[in-house]
Every structure is written in structure tokens, then in C-alpha cells.
Design brief:
This protein is 39% helix and 12% strand. With 354 residues, the protein is α/β, with parallel strands linked by helices. Helix 9 links the parallel strand 8 and strand 9.
């Protein structure tokens, strides 16, 4: 097959069409740097160019959606040191009623729009902006107290979630207007470790749909990120208006192979970012990438971490991933890859759905 450009490769992968090799996406936070939009753009472009990535995920700091509502973070600005929350905006259940929609052109939301705008000006790469689900933002606003609140005071929580959803939808509208090709919609609450499926359907799905449904035809790349373990993969993935799904497949059900039997959406993952990538050998990293490609079916996928790569990860390890993926151009898809060597932290696939 002829060599494809980045954009064509990614969009063909999403649509399940033949590609010359799997697409590649790697992402990590840049603590201290990410407070300055221009500096963050420079670091993102450096990572993108050095590793020859196919997809550029905007690495907004995880606290960006809650600062304008009153959360405060610690003042560390050191490399690799992620700030801590020192004050939460929501402490009592009645506080949810007082939330007001934000102007996303301003404050921290406005900074993230500036990042997207500058990236679009400097590259033709497929760009996906990081957008948090309303329930995830609520969890950050309350330091996790949202779980207690939604069970004891559901009406208060619903009022707050509706406000958050309106703000998030407005932000996503502006993100696409600035040139993003789509979104990386992260939910950190669709886990049985936190909520029951029925609770997530009421307090999660309701507002997730409010945010992303209007953009099903406008955003070409729509990634659903299911964070953590014991995730609600089977319950959500095929119903959500997304065409890509990312999760920590090396640590939780389903494996990449199991996921391929559950959905025809583009699978994004395959790399154990906390184990193999961080501390495994060169051979283990390479073999894990090849194993992911085999499990996924070798076409409709993006090789990536299951979540954010630790910020102190050696970039030489990331280069091994890049060289392995780029080396698959022209590979005989009927030939066998080497058997995968188990790396540190690699799942043995024994976790069940329970």
C-alpha cells in the first residue's frame, strides 16, 4: 500500500479503512510549563515532531476546568511536579445550586482556546482537545464529594451538573471553531469502583450526551476516554456518539482483543504507560507495541498509552515506540510478530468485568 500522510492515515483508521501502518499518539503533561499557553504549544510541537506522531492531543492541565469556579491549586512550578488542590469550590451539597455558567473565552478556559488556536496555526496535524465530562469536573470541584452528594442530595447535584454541562458544551463549540479536529472526552467516573451503572446513567450519561451529541457531525475525531479500572466499557462505548475509545487496556477489562469483539470503533491504546513504557526493557516496549497491533486487528487502531504518560518518563523510551510503529510500514500482515515479553506492570488479563 502507498505511504499515507498523517491526516489521511488517521481518518482512514477511524473509518476502518486500510492503512499503511497504525496511527500513533503519545501524550504527557508538562507541569510548570502548561501554565503558559505559548510555552505549552512549543513543548507539544516538540513532542509531536521528535516522535513523529500522527495525532496531537492537547495536553491542557487537568485542573483547567475548575479554577474559574473557585478551586485553588498549589503554586509549584517545578518540572514533573503536578500541583495539588488546596481549596475546593464545592464543600456543601447546596453549593451546587449557586454555580453559574462561565464565559469560556476568558480565564483558564480562554487559555486552552489560545493553545488550540496557536497549534492550528503552526501545524496541519489532526488535533483533539481535552474536554472533561461534567461529572468529572464536578468531582474535581468537590474533591470527590460528588459521590456522597449525588446519593444524598440528587436535586442539588443535577442543578450543578446542568450548569457545568452548558459551560463544557460552550467550550467545545469554541474549541472546534479554533480549528480542533475533535475532542478527547475524558470521564474519570464511569467506573464501578465509584458508581453503579444506574448512577452513572443518571448523573453521567445524561450530561455527557448534552455536551457531545451536538457535535457528532461536526467533530471528525471523537475520542471517549474511560479512566481507571472496572470501567463501564460495554455499557457506554457503542451508545456514545464517538468513533474512538481509549482506556487502560493493559490494566483492566477489556483487553484490546476483547474490545475488538465488542465494538467496531477505533481502538486507542495498547501501551502500559505506568509499567512497560516507564521501566521495561527496549525489547519489552517494542514487543508490547507489536502485541497491541496484533490484538486490535492491525488496522482500526491508534497505538497510544491507556492514559497520560508520567511526566518524568525518559523520551528515549517514547522514541522506541515511535520507531516500532513507523517500522510497520510495508510489514507483511500475514507474518507473525515476536512473542510479547511481559513487562513490569503488564496485566495478565485475569481481571473480570465484576
Amino acid at each position: 500500500m502507498r505511504h499515507l500522510g498523517r491526516r489521511e492515515r488517521v481518518f482512514r483508521s477511524v473509518n476502518g479503512q486500510p492503512v499503511d501502518r497504525p496511527s500513533l499518539a503519545l501524550w504527557m503533561h508538562f507541569p510548570g510549563i502548561d501554565r503558559d499557553p505559548a510555552a505549552l504549544v512549543d513543548m507539544q510541537l516538540q513532542l509531536y515532531k521528535e516522535l513523529r506522531l500522527d495525532v496531537l492531543k492537547v495536553m491542557s492541565p487537568g485542573w483547567y476546568p475548575v479554577i474559574d469556579w473557585g478551586c485553588r491549586i498549589s503554586s509549584e512550578a517545578e518540572p514533573f511536579v503536578v500541583p495539588r488542590f488546596v481549596e475546593y469550590a464545592i464543600t456543601e451539597s447546596t453549593d451546587w445550586r449557586s454555580l453559574r455558567a462561565l464565559d469560556t473565552d476568558k480565564g483558564e478556559y480562554g487559555k486552552q482556546l489560545a493553545v488550540v488556536r496557536m497549534l492550528r496555526e503552526k501545524t496541519e496535524a489532526p488535533i483533539v482537545a481535552t474536554v472533561f465530562s461534567p461529572l468529572t469536573t464536578a468531582s474535581k470541584l468537590s474533591g470527590g464529594a460528588i459521590v456522597e452528594h449525588l446519593r444524598a442530595h440528587p436535586k442539588d447535584v443535577h442543578m450543578g451538573l446542568e450548569t457545568i454541562a452548558k459551560t463544557t458544551q460552550d467550550f467545545l463549540e469554541r474549541v472546534l471553531a479554533e480549528g480542533a479536529d475533535g475532542f478527547f472526552f475524558a470521564t474519570q467516573c464511569a467506573s464501578r469502583r465509584l458508581l453503579t451503572v444506574s448512577e452513572y446513567r443518571e448523573f453521567g450519561c445524561t450530561y455527557d450526551y448534552m455536551v457531545i451529541s451536538p457535535f457528532e457531525q461536526r467533530a471528525e475525531l471523537r475520542v471517549l476516554h474511560l479512566h481507571g479500572t472496572r470501567i463501564m466499557f460495554e455499557e457506554l462505548v457503542n451508545d456514545y456518539p464517538v468513533n474512538m475509545v481509549n482506556w487502560y487496556d493493559r490494566a483492566t477489562w477489556p483487553s484490546m482483543r476483547e474490545a475488538r469483539s465488542l465494538t467496531d470503533k477505533c481502538l486507542v491504546g495498547g501501551i502500559d504507560h505506568k509499567g512497560t513504557l516507564y521501566s521495561g526493557t527496549r525489547e519489552q516496549i517494542r514487543d508490547e507495541v507489536l502485541d497491541a497491533v496484533v490484538q486490535s486487528g492491525d488496522s482500526n487502531m491508534v497505538v497510544s498509552p491507556g492514559c497520560v504518560i508520567p511526566p518524568d518518563t525518559d523520551w528515549d523510551r517514547l522514541r522506541i515506540v515511535s520507531r516500532t510503529v513507523h517500522g510497520l510500514v510495508g510489514h507483511d500482515k500475514n507474518a507473525e510478530f515476536p512473542r510479547q515479553s511481559r513487562g513490569p506492570g503488564d496485566s495478565d488479563g485475569t481481571e473480570t468485568r465484576a
